[in-house]
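Sample 3 of the quickstart, ligand copper (II) ion:
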Amino acid sequence: MIDRLTDFVSWFFVTGDPLIYGADVAIVLTTAAIVFVLTYFEKWGWLWREWLTTVDHKRVGIMYIIASLLMLFRGGVDALLMRTQLAFPDLKFLSPEHYNEVFTTHGVIMILFMAMPLMFGLFNIAVPLQLGARDVAFPFLNSLSFWLFFIGAMLFNMSFVIGGSANAGWLSYPPLSEMTGSPGVGEDFYIWGVQISGIGSLMTGINFIVTIVKMRAPGMTWSRVPIFTWSVLSSCIAIIVAFPVLTVTLALLFLDRFLGAHFFTMDGGGNAMMYVNLIWMWGHPEVYIVVLPAFGIFSEVVATFSRKRLFGYGSMVFAMLSISLMAYFTWLHHFFTMGSGANVNIFFAISTMIIAIPTGVKIFNWLFTMFRGRISFQTPMLWTVAFIPCFIVGGMTGVMLSVAPADFQFHNSYFLIAHFHQVLIGGVAFGYFAGLYYWWPKMFGFKLNETIGKWAFWIWNIGFYVCFMPQYVVGLDGMTRRLNSYSWDSGWWALNFTSTIGGFLMGIGFLFQVWQIAHSIKFMEKDTTGDPWGARTLEWSIPSPAPLYNFATTPLVTDRDDWWEEKERIAAGKMPKAKPELEPIHMPKNSPIPFIQSICWFTVGFGLVFHWLWIAIPGFIGIAVTMLVHSFNYDTDYYIPVDEIQRTEAKAGRGA
Ligand code: HEM
Ligand SMILES: [Cu+2]
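Result:
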């Protein structure tokens, strides 16, 4: 009996590595600390009422952002572990098996559990406010989406200490990811972690499309929609087309593993390349899904900090929408080497090159916006200005990769790694940082410290180039990706060592950002204007942080940069726009169901990972029951009375 128990424990928990034991201890200590703090300060009720059950888009946004920054930390530690292993030839720091796990978790976490939620956080913070709306179209669904993402991320992260991590790469190609290649539970954690959070992403896509189409303030015609909101729309259109493909692909892979189906195995009539096609039919649009909103952020920031109207608004919108369409015709550039023949490769090579055109248009628009502007280099603008050259180089190397015959040389080399980090860090991460700095005062009512922010910015940037430029060279010199070790005679040491130094510099940059946040909270300088940057769109017309109901009265939009024009009118001595009488505001009620249902999803995922139906089935029942309960709940809304609105506005210094 005891033997069986110890066998089970050593199989169930990951053992044998000091790193893991360290993580075990850290997890137990952190959990204990959180429980202690919440109990000591009697904060459980507050946590439950104000956060876990909230349907307020602003709070959901903040939760997304906190979770994604934690994931940035974990993904970053993974990256530094790999860079440490590669700092010298023949190092034994990470075993080959462990290295496989680390690049897999790093890739999955960075894209799906860092970039996606940080992006959704910014959607939630900014879009309803830019539209002059009370909330998103479906606040309940919004909260459910968040919890599905969160629980998916937890499930995936858990595999670090329970059961073992996935190790077949961030896209889990078969046959490696089939039972024969990966008999452990790591792949199943991958499938269910990504699957559950993916369902959440799909619902967010639907939610924001409906919000943007239906909830614009009166007067906000399509040509007056703020550019960030346009970028969100183009990203969400790509989401609702791409994510169902991911769901189906993962479901088929799961059937292969769980029931011994043969969708992707060579025996039994399956085909592994089918998987590769399907996953990239989601995967390529996915990279545009995460970068389009970054383009939107850069556009807002560039206009605000140049104190000029965005140059080429119409072409910007057209470029973004055409990218979200063209994203579907390029997926095969990820495997030109598959052997599908010259004609197929030509089609996908050309379609990929064509995408460079709308991207180039955007770069010129940003430059022309800055041209003769009164530019102020505050942190959001710094990230934007750094992004432009970085993305140009990343884009050019992308075009190099799209030359199909040349790709036979570049494919799966460090040249590729350098390229995609250049667009993912220089485009996506820099963009979200710009957005985070930009909207931070709107979220919390105070700005982040600029001096520490500038340090963080420079360290990140220098680190970036030191880390990734050598990788282009070492890639051309023949170093392949996912390589855990190399020898002295390869001649790759100096480049790799330099790259590792750059990686650690970026880590230090991240620490500066953490310090910056902590410092800014401690020495908080409250922003009482609600518009600390002198910005242009509606979200800056209300107090910071925005009151629960956002706008005391629904704004009437008469211009693209409505708030800027209003400020100009007032400065010119004209009357501000007349505001309608206050009326009670219709609001959605908080609900515990999204949180509870996500726990049921977790149970389902966990049960299916271990093939324990006795856990999975109650989870399914729980999902059905919570859906039913919510369907028959008619007590979902309430009104904020006028006197309460008056009091809130007066407190924020606004006579309504
Ligand atoms: C913070 C600095 C970062 C460093 C130092 C870094 C470093 C690395 C390294 C060393 C690899 C493994 C290369 C290999 O052995 O094949 C890798 C892979 C990868 N990284 Fe990063 N990375 C960073 C940030 C990011 C970000 C921000 C993203 C996405 C938003 C990202 C996405 C990926 C992906 C998708 C892979 C491929 C994983 C795979 O091969 O399955 N990385 N990175
Ligand atoms: Cu692609």
